[in-house]
Design goal:
14 helices, 24 strands, binds ligand EPZ
Length: 424
């Protein structure tokens, strides 16, 4: 199992490129199942989850060619299996995103039922109820969701989501674009990744109104064509590097980063004391050597503060002046980093779903263990600013969401290397 070994005490300084978005790449790969002709995707990040999604399509018979720049050609007309097997779904919950497209295009799908994960129970009831509203028959058997569309295919439906769900909105949007008639999705999620997916579907010939709002109106079409599509930059990767730079009292410039997808995070970084400048496709942050000030965070669906950025701010607050609270409202168990940060000398107490973070002058290196993707990003930030050498174990979690993390941090002046741990 790989580890990251980080010599703390660096002040981040420099410029890096932000990769394509994992959470937009995953549904867009699923959307290629809807196209009658080949699709060409670019700016996909080289990440484990992306290769898992491509493997999932491949194991269903889809023809995929990946070039050295991660430009991917997908020809889904060769599909001959309609099952997303347990072995792949158990490693990546986002596999559920093939359900809507397979039902819409082929009228059937068997998808292994995703279980809970470290950060919460994460049910998929809204995905299933929305598809049932479009006429699908769904039952669960042997750990699989077995779904069939009615004779003549899915029918457009009016569907209200009683919880804002990113994956649910994506699945239902992908089902609705080929359903007969009009669908309306109410209380839809508005995350930039959903806008990216919707833009891709429109480029394929879909008719969608209300993109970027919580009220999506979809007029089903007969068929969708393949197109060329470039995935948006990863806003969470961008936010993570900005937060690391702020924690280290440093400065950073991100290229291929869209500030308009990160407003809530940038606002908080300004409150922390950072000078932020933005351009059309870049963001820069400078702390001018100042110690950050602790801030209060409350996560909520977009455009509010993203749950995927709260653990990084917990690390930032840990070395800030004053006390900040970090309240998680989306997932039940997303403060996994707290106990590891406390092992490094942080002063954090948990009250329900709120972490109360009292800033300390400095953190101290310690062996720590990553437990989920964003929690591990917070440990890397803590290690960068800690005194001494920190070993972050189980970094396969980091590798799910951060392309070339060592190379990028080295470019920013951090002393970091990857090693294999002796024990597993
Ligand atoms: C997406 O997960 C992201 N994953 C997550 O990214 C992100 O944390 C999350 O959205 C919230 O922004 C991908 O895009 C691949 P949800 P998703 O459905 O779609 C409840 C990362 O670190 N819910 O919006 O699974 C659910 O339990 C991650 O990159 C239901 O109750 O999240 C949660 O409390 C991990 N019923 C809330 O909604 C449902 O049917 C939001 O979950 C569906 C969801």
């Amino acid at each position: 199992m790989d580890q990251l070994i980080i010599q703390g005490g660096a002040t981040i300084s420099g410029e890096i490129n932000i990769s394509g978005s994992k959470n937009s790449g995953l549904p867009i790969i699923a959307a290629t199942l809807l196209a009658s002709t080949p699709m060409y995707l670019s700016n996909l990040p080289q990440l484990k989850d992306i290769t898992t999604m491509l493997s999932l399509l491949r194991c269903m018979g889809v023809d995929i060619v990946v070039d050295e720049k991660m430009r991917v050609e997908v020809n889904s007309s060769t599909i001959n299996e309609f099952e997303a097997p347990y072995d792949l779904v158990k490693t990546m919950r986002a596999s559920i995103l093939v359900l809507g497209p397979m039902l819409a295009r082929y009228g059937k799908a068997d998808v292994s039922f995703p279980g809970g994960c470290a950060i919460g129970s994460r049910p998929v009831d809204i995905h299933l109820r929305g598809l049932e509203a479009m006429g699908a028959e769904i039952h669960v058997d042997g750990g699989y969701i077995r779904a069939t569309a009615p004779e003549g295919g899915l029918r457009g439906a009016h569907f209200f989501m009683d919880t804002v769900t990113v994956g649910g909105t994506e699945n239902l949007l992908m089902a609705a674009v080929l359903a007969k008639g009009t669908s309306t999705l109410e209380n839809a999620a508005r995350e930039p990744e959903i806008v990216d997916l919707a833009n891709c579907l429109v480029a394929m010939g879909a008719k969608i109104e209300g993109i970027g709002t919580d009220h999506l109106v979809i007029e089903g079409v007969e068929r969708l064509e393949g197109c060329e599509y470039s995935i948006m930059p990863d806003r969470i990767e961008a936010g993570t590097y900005l937060t690391a730079a702020a924690a280290s009292r440093g400065s950073i410039k991100l290229k291929n980063a869209h500030a308009d997808t990160l407003e809530a995070v940038l606002l908080k970084l300004e409150e922390v004391g950072a000078d932020i400048e933005i351009g059309e496709d870049w963001i820069s942050l400078d702390m001018h050597g100042r110690r950050p000030k602790a801030v209060n965070i409350r996560t909520a669906p977009y455009p509010a503060f993203p749950t995927d950025m709260q653990s990084q701010f917990t690390a930032l607050n840990s070395v800030s002046e004053g006390t900040g609270t970090v309240s998680e409202t989306i997932f039940e168990n997303r403060h996994l980093q707290v106990h590891e940060l406390n092992r490094m000398g942080a002063n954090i107490t948990l009250e329900g779903n709120t972490a109360i973070v009292r800033g300390v002058e400095r953190l101290n290196a310690a062996p720590v263990m990553a437990s989920d993707l964003r929690a591990s990003a917070s440990l890397v930030i803590a290690a960068i600013v800690a005194e001494g050498e920190t070993v972050v174990d189980r970094i396969y979690h980091v590798d799910r969401g951060y392309e070339c993390i060592e190379e990028k941090l080295q470019q920013l002046g951090v002393n970091i290397r990857r090693a294999s741990s002796k024990k597993t």
